[in-house]
Input
Amino acid sequence: MPTIDCVSPDLPDMGVRRALLAEAGPTIPVQIGHDPGFDEYADLKPVVPPDLYPALVDTGASGNSIDNELAVALGLPVVEYAVTVSGSVGEHTTNVYLAHIHIAELSRTIAGRFTGVALAAGGQLHRAIIGRSFLQDFVLHYDGRTGLVTLSDD
Output
């Protein structure tokens, strides 16, 4: 049963874990890129840069998103320009990128279209958002009292 910790259980102080969870939210390391030859049905890992980026596990987001600045830096293909979307800051216009987000600890890749979001420009830690469209196939255990959060496929 692949499982990933969304807050480091190695932090010995429960108070530190709780504060980190409250401030940053459940966060997982992901690889981001675009592999035009990737076949999601072949059950292989896409060829993407090895760099790890923090992704927010967000039950309030219906879909998955990538930071606009990172998408441009990685040269991700834009599949839609100036799309109107709605979020916590209301309606705004953004691009939609074609990409792969690989979560090594779960042996899963999210392939497809990702809405661009202004995470870095807004001073956020995260570079991607993992929303309910991915989470619907997993079990998320959130224990705010201990500051421990896990995401697993069982």
User: Anything to note?
Assistant: DSSP finds three helices and ten strands in the chain. The beta strands are 3-5, 27-33, 53-57, 65-67, 78-87, 90-103, 108-117, 128-130, 139-143, 148-152. The CA atoms of residues 24 and 44 lie 31 Å apart. The chain has a mean pLDDT of 90.
